[in-house]
Design a protein that fits this description.
two-stranded antiparallel ribbon, 11 strands, histidinol-phosphatase activity, amino-acid biosynthesis, PHP_dom, alpha/beta, 20% strand, single chain, TIM Barrel, 31% helix, seven-stranded parallel β-sheet, hydrolase, Pol/histidinol_Pase-like
């Protein structure tokens, strides 16, 4: 099973990749199953909005196009419906409403901003030491997962690492709170994502870090998805198959796809 469970199209503000082209390219690459997970960040405008003042992405149009792709290409590839939600604690009620209104197969939970401050432009990190902003990031994550349950897996759990100075800071400095997060999501029936954008961002490790994956396995975590975090053709499916050997070396025996928000386990 070759599945890519983190894909962006022209419905995301940081991609211009047409949805049908993603499907056609995936078929050529031999991908068996894909799940569209376009961005839904309620504080960040997405492509497809009627106007800049609109506060929600064009869900009806988005899911209608996925339905069309399923009908058109369903005999060649399995296509699932999903979103990547960029949640902040204050937006939890709005996301709960969206997920009730639009049934999906899969939801990636991401924390792209805290207090409306982004990491990519280092506004969140400003005025904080490395240790302080890492810890603040995990504190925000723990608060959210304890309150919000309408998701499938945590996306790129150590995303903050992508935007630090790559000086080798040890994510296990926050082992205690990361352990608390992992124990909570395991008990809640949720999982984590292995995000292969780590290669193109030259992080020098898997995302999340191998040490986090080892801890997740040690704690009994089983639910894992693998995604390229594709935004353009060169990203699609990249390194998704290659990482499986690394996961086997940690001790994982399975990875997951999803249907109707339920994990389906496949042998690695």
């Amino acid at each position: 099973m070759f599945a890519d469970y983190h894909l962006h199209t022209y419905y995301s503000s940081d991609s211009v990749y047409p949805m049908e082209e993603v499907v056609k390219d995936a078929i050529l690459l031999g991908i068996d199953e894909l799940c569209f997970t376009d961005h839904c960040d309620l504080t960040i405008r997405l492509l497809g909005y009627a106007d800049a003042s609109e506060t929600k992405p064009p869900f009806k149009k988005y899911f209608r196009e996925i339905n069309q792709m399923q009908k058109r290409y369903g005999e060649q590839i399995t296509i699932k419906k999903g979103l990547e939600i960029g949640i902040q604690y204050e937006t939890i009620p709005q996301y709960q409403e969206i997920i009730r209104e639009y049934p999906m197969d899969f939801v990636l939970l991401s924390i792209h901003r805290i207090d409306n401050l982004g990491y990519w432009n280092r506004r969140f990190q400003e005025g904080k030491s490395e240790a302080e902003y890492y810890h603040a990031y995990y504190e925000a994550m723990l608060k959210i997962v304890k309150e919000f349950h309408d998701y499938s897996v945590l996306a790129h759990l150590d995303l903050i690492r992508r935007y630090d100075n790559h000086d080798g800071y040890d994510v296990m400095n926050d082992r205690e709170i990361i352990t608390e997060i992992l124990k909570y999501i395991i008990a809640d029936g949720k999982g984590i994502e292995v995000n292969m954008s780590c290669i193109r961002y030259d992080i020098g490790d898997i995302t999340p870090a191998k040490s986090i994956l080892e801890l997740y396995h040690e704690l009994g975590g089983r639910i894992l998805t693998i995604g390229s975090d594709s935004h353009k053709p060169i990203h699609l499916g990249a390194y998704v198959e290659e990482v499986k050997e690394e996961l086997r070396s940690i001790g994982f025996k399975e990875f997951c796809t999803f249907e109707n928000m339920k994990p389906i386990f496949h042998k690695l």
